[in-house]
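Lecture notes, part 5. Sequence design as translation. It can be helpful to think of inverse folding as translation between two languages: the language of shapes and the language of residues. The source text, in structure tokens, appears below.
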């Protein structure tokens, strides 16, 4: 799949309008960062959305899935997490000596520490653990991980992310979504 420059601009405008609709501190800094970091033009990853504009396209697909299955989840939180869970895949240059383990934590830290974008504790944790369990969690993080992954918001975002990334074959996507909804 290839996106035209027109489609990339349409995605950019949609994302900007969605983020403006959420009343959060430093949205202007976030929008500036997105415009200057390559966010709208970058590939989604080496495995999925491997085309120019894939990162923003993936984020919008996650959002569209989540809005379709919103349930009792907060719409503003869903917008923020869906659109920004992979923000670490941008061309952000960290200060010397700053290291990260896991791209979820890296995304949350970019948003809060470097852009100073306002996240709730739940949003931060859902972004941090959106991929599920990794080998990088230490014992102190396991309780927080378990608490976060038992929320409806995490289940919704995780399902949307996995479906958009193609981790579930097309015939299973409805079943997977239904299971996550049932568990929530």
């Amino acid at each position: 799949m290839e996106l035209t420059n027109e489609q990339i601009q349409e995605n950019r405008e949609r994302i900007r309008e969605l983020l403006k609709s959420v009343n959060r501190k430093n949205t202007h800094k976030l929008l500036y960062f997105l415009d200057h970091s390559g966010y709208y033009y970058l590939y989604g990853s080496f495995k999925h959305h491997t085309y120019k504009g894939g990162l923003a396209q993936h984020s919008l697909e996650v959002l569209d899935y989540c809005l379709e299955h919103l349930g009792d989840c907060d719409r503003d939180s869903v917008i923020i997490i869906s659109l920004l869970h992979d923000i670490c895949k941008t061309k952000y240059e960290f200060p010397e000596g700053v290291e990260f383990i896991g791209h979820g934590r890296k995304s949350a830290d970019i948003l809060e520490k470097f852009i100073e974008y306002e996240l709730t504790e739940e949003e931060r944790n859902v972004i941090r653990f959106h991929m599920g369990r990794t080998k990088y969690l230490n014992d102190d993080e396991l309780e927080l991980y378990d608490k976060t992954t038992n929320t409806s918001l995490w289940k919704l975002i995780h399902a949307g992310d996995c479906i958009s990334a193609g981790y579930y074959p097309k015939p299973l996507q409805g079943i997977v979504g239904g299971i996550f909804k049932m568990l929530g």
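The translated text above is only one of many valid answers, since several sequences can fold into similar shapes. The CA atoms of residues 163 and 171 lie 11 Å apart.
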